[in-house]
Amino acid sequence: MTSPDSAATDARTVRATIVQASTVFYDTPATLDKAERLLAEAAARYGSQLVVFPEAFVGGYPRGSTFGVTIGNRTSEGREQFRKYHASAINVPGPEVDRLAAMAGKYGVYLVMGVIERDGYTLYCTVLFFDSQGQYLGKHRKTMPTALERIIWGFGDGSTIPVFDTPVGKIGAAICWENRMPLLRTAMYGKGIEIYCAPTADSRSIWQASMTHIALEGGCFVLSANQFCRRKDYPPPPGYTFAGTEEDHSPDSVVCAGGSVIISPTGNVLAGPNYEGEALISADLDLGEIPRAKFDFDVVGHYARPEVLSLVVRDHPTKPVTFTSASVNPGGPQP
Amino acid sequence: MTSPDSAATDARTVRATIVQASTVFYDTPATLDKAERLLAEAAARYGSQLVVFPEAFVGGYPRGSTFGVTIGNRTSEGREQFRKYHASAINVPGPEVDRLAAMAGKYGVYLVMGVIERDGYTLYCTVLFFDSQGQYLGKHRKTMPTALERIIWGFGDGSTIPVFDTPVGKIGAAICWENRMPLLRTAMYGKGIEIYCAPTADSRSIWQASMTHIALEGGCFVLSANQFCRRKDYPPPPGYTFAGTEEDHSPDSVVCAGGSVIISPTGNVLAGPNYEGEALISADLDLGEIPRAKFDFDVVGHYARPEVLSLVVRDHPTKPVTFTSASVNPGGPQP
Amino acid sequence: MTSPDSAATDARTVRATIVQASTVFYDTPATLDKAERLLAEAAARYGSQLVVFPEAFVGGYPRGSTFGVTIGNRTSEGREQFRKYHASAINVPGPEVDRLAAMAGKYGVYLVMGVIERDGYTLYCTVLFFDSQGQYLGKHRKTMPTALERIIWGFGDGSTIPVFDTPVGKIGAAICWENRMPLLRTAMYGKGIEIYCAPTADSRSIWQASMTHIALEGGCFVLSANQFCRRKDYPPPPGYTFAGTEEDHSPDSVVCAGGSVIISPTGNVLAGPNYEGEALISADLDLGEIPRAKFDFDVVGHYARPEVLSLVVRDHPTKPVTFTSASVNPGGPQP
Amino acid sequence: MTSPDSAATDARTVRATIVQASTVFYDTPATLDKAERLLAEAAARYGSQLVVFPEAFVGGYPRGSTFGVTIGNRTSEGREQFRKYHASAINVPGPEVDRLAAMAGKYGVYLVMGVIERDGYTLYCTVLFFDSQGQYLGKHRKTMPTALERIIWGFGDGSTIPVFDTPVGKIGAAICWENRMPLLRTAMYGKGIEIYCAPTADSRSIWQASMTHIALEGGCFVLSANQFCRRKDYPPPPGYTFAGTEEDHSPDSVVCAGGSVIISPTGNVLAGPNYEGEALISADLDLGEIPRAKFDFDVVGHYARPEVLSLVVRDHPTKPVTFTSASVNPGGPQP
Amino acid sequence: MTSPDSAATDARTVRATIVQASTVFYDTPATLDKAERLLAEAAARYGSQLVVFPEAFVGGYPRGSTFGVTIGNRTSEGREQFRKYHASAINVPGPEVDRLAAMAGKYGVYLVMGVIERDGYTLYCTVLFFDSQGQYLGKHRKTMPTALERIIWGFGDGSTIPVFDTPVGKIGAAICWENRMPLLRTAMYGKGIEIYCAPTADSRSIWQASMTHIALEGGCFVLSANQFCRRKDYPPPPGYTFAGTEEDHSPDSVVCAGGSVIISPTGNVLAGPNYEGEALISADLDLGEIPRAKFDFDVVGHYARPEVLSLVVRDHPTKPVTFTSASVNPGGPQP
Amino acid sequence: MTSPDSAATDARTVRATIVQASTVFYDTPATLDKAERLLAEAAARYGSQLVVFPEAFVGGYPRGSTFGVTIGNRTSEGREQFRKYHASAINVPGPEVDRLAAMAGKYGVYLVMGVIERDGYTLYCTVLFFDSQGQYLGKHRKTMPTALERIIWGFGDGSTIPVFDTPVGKIGAAICWENRMPLLRTAMYGKGIEIYCAPTADSRSIWQASMTHIALEGGCFVLSANQFCRRKDYPPPPGYTFAGTEEDHSPDSVVCAGGSVIISPTGNVLAGPNYEGEALISADLDLGEIPRAKFDFDVVGHYARPEVLSLVVRDHPTKPVTFTSASVNPGGPQP
Asked: Taxonomically, which superkingdom (chains A, B, C, D, E, F) (predicted)?
């Protein structure tokens, strides 16, 4: 550990790529095809070891939809819209997960993929993790959806806040405004996160402040991946309508402007933010930056005050119904 | 599962038929013959994929009997009545189960059949499940008999509350007033029930309120099957006497008025209730209604609060005597 | 308790009144004035001992609002709308709670009042309980808001699911679609609820089925109180706009049709449902009906199977931050 | 331990009295008055140290009633009958329990009393235990009612099968046909029972065989107390009707013939059986008979084969709803 | 099984005979000859389908012997006495077993025979079962010898507590005071025993109470067979001496008084008890009595509380030495 | 509070000023004079209701000092430097605190002042709070000094993390890199902080990201005050030397560049950052922005998951020595 060689080892560098691209909306097989093309390009052109996709890349982020809901009312059109959205989601595990795992193995990359997960009839905004050997590692379910998302997605519990210790670093993810939750971030800091993935749907410039802050606070690399969507990436009306917006209705009008970015543990922007279009955004992550940054500030180490401030994370699964016989698990495996 | 086609698949429709008919009392072979005629008709006339029979169709519901019991007393006539009732029940597995399985296979329907099960000298009010390939799938034993039923039927345990994942949907059953048990229903919701069968002996109009409520609560189709019995469906006195009733004693007087009904997950009555006579009651179940309804309310998904309220289901078998050698099982197999 | 007289005592009768009326929207003092007028009338005209108001009577149910929210977007108008709604809510305890307590004492009634509770900057849909001596007894916070309500109201925890043992019976409340939650209902059954209040905002006829079912399931009286609102009960545009509705925009058009109802433990409708207008709906509750009904079905007594199905209620308060010194409680007292 | 004196100590003798008498039906205060008169007489005339009353002495055994129940039907008269019966039952703890405790203390006797216990709206057939200092010791709830009793009484769980170690010996109770349950008896043998109380409602001569067998099997004294009731001990019709009996309807006709008996561990009948009328039946219990009998046969000692046959008693309370906060216990304390 | 005829079948009747007779002591071939004579008579005179012999009929019950044992001492005479007793016992399987099987086949009866089994140098008090086709079915070894029996007999394990399902009913056996063991009896109840054989050596009148109790408890027929022995049935002194008795020493003095009895499931004595002499005691067993009795009380069915009280039977063979190669089974076949 | 007027009240506006200025180093009285001048100006020119000073304004931030410390060594010069620094600090309470309180009262402002607090021979980096009536409210001690600060300042405990509920809003403070501590921030969020003061010594541009993030995360106004220091603000060498810097040594060279800023709850920069020189930086804080922002994200309200993630704050004083007599409290009053 202390030889010159080990120092070199500690200072290993990881090539990472963020995918900034749009879902093929309501067409999950085509979305998976697109994911594979992007993954192949990241591997071939950039030699990436780690590829991070945006929130809800598989299944889609139904921006501008209302699902027919107002306070105290629903519509049958909104219910049918949900049925279609539900049908586009994927089971975990399931055939789409198998395909994603195979992709990761084929291109030899660690893959972090935002999906809409179907568990019975409730959906979750989930991030899946795969290793470069083609194995599914586990998942993170968004613990708290934002605003109208709360009517289409359920709430993850404490059992799916993983950090995976991999050869490319300790990897985890928080989704969109979860990144604003200080206790959730601290839970991941407590697990030693080094490569903090932040798949998101927030393309406002103010988002960059939070990404920089988290890199400093956590002493970790932050990789924020957002979709870049134009109107034409969604089905045409009446299959899809944008509610409550007075924006440009032309097919090329930008619906989600991206802003994907890679930031170092000392707060340096390594790549991005990109607000131009679909793109692969890559950077070399010098893992030696982590101890350099933690020397200043180690949020769960020398800079913590555990005798004053302590966080309790209830990370056992919570289910409305549990069966004492072990074999019944209708909701699929937990990581 | 997630292609546009799969959305169409999710919206698949199942033709279901409820049988509203009477047992041939004290004549189990004749009852099975009648079951077969009804099944054949459901398949031929309605093209049914799923057929649900009432509670205790095989073995019979001895309405109006007292079995000679008062508080602190019994009669030898009552004991003899029980002996005959016991003799009309069926073993599970056993030859009658084999015949029912063969019927389901012959007509290519999923079959849900209420029976009186004999396990040694205790009887259970049981529902049997068969697939359209002619296989016996398993059984549900009523967990809590109502009122005087407690002197003729035993109590099922947690090991026989199955929900079967079939091509026509996830099927289970609760019998008569079991349907009033919120924790039992929730156990089935937790297993993902989609087609909730409610074989019953309750023909009061108030029963409809519970059926509608369950459809809404569970976000599932509810199929409630009741017998329609006239006095003449029972043996003449003194072989059979109705106690404590001042009803019409004519052979055509109605003893059980049916009320069988099919309700959608959003609470719409699709067929029935029928209070007129023996009948086959059919409806098309659009399974797409389930996600539409669950969008509003998913009792074990987005509308649950598992960290506050959690149900534990002890679903291992409970037996007064267990033998450590595996092969001794005098009471027949468990599903 | 056990003399022949006590049998008469058990059969005591309680006069109860449900208020079906509209909030004075965005004017909390005027709403409290209206509450007092209605309470006075219930006491004077009907001699009521128990008066139940609808969900969100104080603070209002902002039907038809969207608060400017679509998936992935918000508007500043929506945020301002929330600020006003937040300003109309009440702290618990606080001066409005004191006024309500004084009203209950003045008219000598047990009072169950739906309010919007302000706890810092999060709101809760809450029911307050007061005794006829003018004491505040405690509160129930809705544990799970429905659909768009999830963006304006927080989620109650297990510490506010009270049942109060009073001289007019054991009283508790579940709000609107909480009534569809079987485990929540069972928690209240487990506390022995006898007078089950169901303040609601659901005026569909299908709501009646659930109310009847709950009365049967719980063996309790069900008192469902809903608002009756016309368009003119809300401020005129642009102060208030109804989104996504193609309804009659005349001032007298009905926005919420009521349907308040009182049902006995055996499922008999004692008063209502009223879909005509603002009204006081009264009935005599013969508490002797409870043992008569429980003889048939006691959901947490003789009809339970606790060794198979058991519900765990985590009824300790859950807070994101707790301070080990006892006196710091920024969110107000818990019952 | 081994001195001659200790042998004398071991051979201590206890004076025990069984009360064979009738409830004052539907009049619990009068029944308690009668209990006190009988207790006073047992203490004064016989110097009894231990007095055992029959099953359901307080609350009553409604022999010959049907509560209007037939298979599939109920009557409103039956429900009202239950309401009255429910009103005659007692809460545990409660004022009647306090009175019984005071009686035991006043007359300085260990008291074993059969009661009907009211827990919410479910009743239990319960035996209460009191010490000679006037303390309530605990209770046994009948675990399995017989026949029609199952519609009026709930089922006790494993937490109320106590054996109390007292200066007059180790005392417990099994009620009526519970005495036929070999596993329940063995649970009490396993707790070291020495004075086995068998309050009952079975006056058939065949009952004596079971009492003798239990004395031999358990190596314990058996004290079986039954009521002696005449028709006139019940209210006159229509307040009370005997169903399904062709017996003598005169006021003096015997409804329950007693048969109370005291048997030694070696199977000797020490007093009774008495089939003549109300009576106090007394005997001296030479506790030295217990080791003499166990020398022959010690059912849970030298004559057990625990490596082959072992009984598991789940003696934790089972409740349909549990609250994680300790203080909520609507059902009263558990022994 | 379920036709009206099957009800008749369920009510089938079995003719059973108990043999009350003495071993020809120390002469096993003569004892077998005597057995055959008695069997022939039972078949010819009574048309018996089932014949039950007493405990230790083959090999003998050495009543009155001490085998020279006092606390802390033995004698060489006692050792020689054991050698002779050991020589009179039989191997299982072995030629005497073959002869017994042939007898059963010849007379077409189900045969239940008490024997002394020799397994190496340890003896067991065993009951053998044969079918009417002349097949040996299996054996029961007494699990717990009484008092001094413990110096001449070993202890059976849980692998030899069989219940055989035969055309004449489900048959098993418990020997002498094993019948006092509630867990052993429950093991047999758990296997569904219908014809409960109780070969014994206890001729006290109190034995009848236990037999009646077991019939009621188990809901089964009880057939208790005892030897009737006079002094002259034993060899004359000094070949055989009775220790510690001051009885009549005349050759005709009764050493064991019989008391064999047949009891129905409802506790009715069908034949016996006979205390007069050697005899064949016969009765018709109406198997319909079993469901009639179980209607009242089904010890392992509707009257069990398996979730509270559960018996575990370790019914695998236990041997002091086991060999990992599968084929070693020195003790003969297991049922 | 709930009238339409109260909505206006909720939208009240507060004028706030940040002081960006330098300590008069090693001259505490002169520093207090300077503080008063700045305070007077803020009140007079801007009408400020709230004035916030930088970290260590009184006592000074000894930037560039090493206090003679290297790993394993100290120097006597460093010790003397600490003696002088210790002498410039102030006791709390004490005469300087009284003077500051008087100033606040004189100018009618809420005052938040960074000081170096002397507690015996340990110093703390502390913020003092005063109300506009001239009352000292309490203090916050920096809980975790950064890097070399750890050799001159002690660590604050959990008892000095106050949030004061004042007419200008709920006010608290975190000092410099404490602002990076997510659990400390959450403790203040849990107390309802609305005006979050961040006195600092960090003038890097990256600091702005954290300030913006905190405003969003906490839904609060953030007021970050830093000193603006030139070389000449420190004593000349050798009285003061800057270690390890190759910077411009001219008197006007900037040692600390300020960057003070005011940010709204939605992340808008209201004033600053100023990197130009000493300045008063002012803005109007529209408190209505808080509910508008919390509608989106309420970190301890609707966006928390307390059942998964909960922070425990041990906010009792921790002292190395406590005296059991109650009156000992050497550290001054606690909030």
From this structure: Eukaryota
Pairs across A and F, CB distance < 8 A: 145
Task: Round to whole Å and give the CA distance between B55 and B63.
Answer: 12
Domain assignment of residue B101, yes or no: yes
Give B310 to chain E, closest Cα distance, Å: 21
Regions of chain B with pLDDT less than 70: 1-11, 244-248, 326-335
Best C305, C307, C309 residue to mutate vs chain E (most E CBs within 10 Å):
C307
Q: How many CB pairs under 8 A join B and C?
A: 142
Residue C12 phi/psi, 5° resolution? -65, 155
Asked if the C-beta of E1 comes within 8 angstroms of chain C's C-beta atoms, the answer is no
CA distances from A49 to A35, A100, A126, A279, E27 (A): 16, 15, 22, 17, 91
- Chain D residue closest to B200 (CA)? D72
The closest alpha carbon to F78, from F244, F248, F231, F243, belongs to F243
Residue E335 within any structural domain of the chain: no
Which amino acid is located at A33 in the chain?
D
Number of domains forming the structure of chain B: 1
CA distance B67 to B72: 13
A87: closest chain B residue by CA: B7
The whole model's pTM is what? Answer: 0.91
User: Does the beta-carbon distance from B149 to D66 stay under 8 Å?
Assistant: no
Domain range for D120: 13-328
Q: What's D107-137 look like in SS3?
A: HCCEEEEEEEEEECCEEEEEEEEECCCCCEE
Model pLDDT for residues C3-23, shown as the tens digit of each residue: 333 344 455 899 999 999 999
Chain B environment of F308 (Cβ under 8 Å): 307
Q: Rounded to the nearest 5°, which phi and psi values hold at D207?
A: -55, -35
DSSP assignment of A3-61, as one string? SHHHHHHHT-EEEEEEEE----TT-HHHHHHHHHHHHHHHHHHH--SEEEPPTTTBT--
Q: Which two tokens stand for residue E153?
A: 């007999």
Q: Which tokens hold the place of C146?
A: 């429905």
Residue F207 has pLDDT above 80, yes or no: yes
Backbone angles phi, psi at D8, to 5 degrees: -60, -40
Residue C243: its pLDDT value, please?
A: 78
Exactly one of D34, D96, D125, D176 is catalytic; which is it? D176
A66 interfacial to chain C (CB closer than 8 Å): yes
Per the annotation, the verdict on F77 as an active-site residue is: no
Q: Which of E266, E273, E271 is nearest to E287 (CA)?
A: E266
Among B217, B302, B311, the residue to mutate for chain A (most A Cβ within 10 A): B302
User: Which CATH number does the domain housing residue A280 bear?
Assistant: 3.60.110.10
Query: If we measure between CA atoms, which residue out of C135, C220, C132, C214 comes closest to residue C180?
Result: C214
- Tell me the nearest-neighbour CA distance from D44 into chain C, angstroms: 29
Which are the catalytic amino acids of E? 55, 142, 176
**E136 domain residue, yes or no:** yes
Angle at D131 between CA D129 and CA D132, to 5 degrees: 140
| Residue D110 in this model has a pLDDT that exceeds 50 | yes
pLDDT digits (tens, 9 = 90+) for C34-55: 999 999 999 999 999 999 999 9
pLDDT tier for residue F71 given thresholds of 50, 70 and 90? confident
How many angstroms away from the CA of F307 is the closest CA of chain B? 6
Task: Give the dihedral sign, CA D119/D121/D125/D130.
Answer: positive
User: E314 touching B, CB under 8 A?
Assistant: yes
Q: Is residue B334 part of a domain?
A: no
Other C-beta atoms lying within 10 Å of the C-beta of residue A312: 15
Contact with chain E for residue B319, Cβ under 8 A:
yes
Report chain F's terminal Cα–Cα distance, integer Å: 27
Give how far Cα D250 sits from Cα of D235, D236, D253, D254, Å. 13, 11, 5, 9
CB contact under 8 A, B82 and E291: yes
Distance CA B321, CA E160 (A): 16
